[in-house]
Amino acid sequence: MAAIAAADVYTGYELRLAILYLAPIALATWSIGRGAGILIAVLAAATWLLSFLSEHLYSHVIYLYWEGTIIVATYVIFVMLLSRLKQALANSDDRFAKVVDGLDAMVFVEDAQTRRILFANPRYRERFGAAGDRPAVILPDADGEVRDPASARWYAVHNRPLRWIDGRSVTLRVLTDVTEEKRARELVARHRDAGHRVSRLIALGEFASAVAHELNQPLAAIATYNNTCLRILSDPRGAHGDLREAMEKCRDQARRAGEIIHRLRELIRKPGLSVAAHDLNAIARSATGLAEPEAADAGVEIGLALAHAPVPVMADPVLVEQVVLNLLRNAIDAMRREPARRRISVHVSRTQHGEGALEVTDSGSGVAAGIVPRLFEAFVSDKPGGMGLGLSICRSVIEAHGGAMRYAPNAAKGSVFGFRLPARTE
């Protein structure tokens, strides 16, 4: 302040150096505080006023005092703004420190060259020690996970290069303890593997049950035709033509059993089927022919109502034929206890969207209301001794073709089971 006042007097106040008083005012405010800054501001204004009082060129002294008042006000405003800035920076540092200190993660700053720690929050210091040392764990330069051999705990590491307050290159590192999460992930993985094994065992069991269920029909037919052959052979008057016909049917049923096993295995192993265009009328006619002997034994009549024109659908004919045959056998079983009106209707049509549709209608005892919501689930049945696999297999086959199964109670009495299959694409 004395140097500024002397320079002002020496230059005859031509340079008006009073602005330079802001330097000691700023130094006092930043170093000591607001009170010291205001004190230096008042002293600087008084020094200027006393040194300039005898040399001013104003026409009246009141103008000198007016300028002095403006200078004092300017200095005080400068002090207030500078002290507010200092307080704001201090508050910002405090907030940053509180946030970093309150984190559950371990945060520290590492010198890029020496790898010494320049800053560490309390969480890091509690676990690994104070700043100034090297990191206790060798950390990767890229983000990732690292294991602490001393504690056997795992940490997720996030890195970011920064410029430190003195200009040197540093790395901000954040460590998050993920030991429990890693253990949970490993436990979930083990449970998932166990679940896959259980699913495969269940699928294997269902496949075995499905094979047993589906092979029952062709094997029974083989046994019937074989008995027919034996009767023909035991009769010296037996017709060789009848024997040949029975043997051919026995062969066809054996082939059909092999096809069923092959198609069911493909259905379980592959996500899709190898399908081609087939006439749903022909599939329905073939399935009805296979079911007629069993229907005749039960005293049930099957009525076949085919579409007037071919109904081409994308299907595996063996599997879809087996679906129709299962629906017919269920209808025959439902009709066995009926004293009269033992008639089943098979109706083939084309929907308004071009899909192929087939319905099997019976006038039997119907489906118990309690199992309707779970009717197409595995092992659900209301038949005495039933395994509950037939409708489940039917649904799996139809849905594998991209179609859908349906059930509805018959308006008169009994049930209506049916399905839709996609039409042939040109």
Describe the protein:
There is one protein chain. This protein is α+β, with helices and mostly antiparallel strands. It folds into 4 domains: 2-100, no CATH class; 104-177, PAS domain (Beta-Lactamase), CATH 3.30.450; 185-270; 273-421, 2-Layer Sandwich (Heat Shock Protein 90). The protein has helices at residues 2-10, 22-31, 34-52, 61-102, 122-128, 179-234, 240-269, 280-297, 317-335, 390-400, and strands at residues 106-111, 117-120, 144-148, 153-163, 169-177, 276-279, 301-305, 312-315, 343-350, 356-361, 404-409, 415-421. The strands form 3 sheets. It has a 5-stranded antiparallel sheet. Strands 7-9-10-12-11 form a 5-stranded mixed sheet. Strands 6-8 form a two-stranded antiparallel ribbon. A hairpin with a 4-residue loop joins strand 3 (144-148) and strand 4 (153-163). The N and C termini lie far apart (100 Å).
Distance between the terminal alpha carbons, to the nearest Å? 100 Å
- Quote the CATH topology of the largest domain: Heat Shock Protein 90
Described by strand count, sense and barrel closure, the largest sheet is: 5 strands, antiparallel
* Sequence of secondary-structure elements: HHHHEEHEEEHHEHEEHEEHEE
Low-pLDDT windows of residues? none
Oligomer: single chain
Rounded Rg: 48 Å
Please bin the fraction of helical residues: 40-55%
Task: State the shape.
Answer: rod-shaped
Derived from helix and strand composition plus strand pairing, the structural class reads alpha+beta
**How much strand content do the residues show?**
15-25%
The CATH homology group name of the largest domain: Histidine kinase-like ATPase, C-terminal domain
Mean pLDDT: 79
Lateral strand order in the biggest sheet: 2-1-5-4-3
Number of helices: 10
Number of domains: 4
CATH class of the largest domain: Alpha Beta
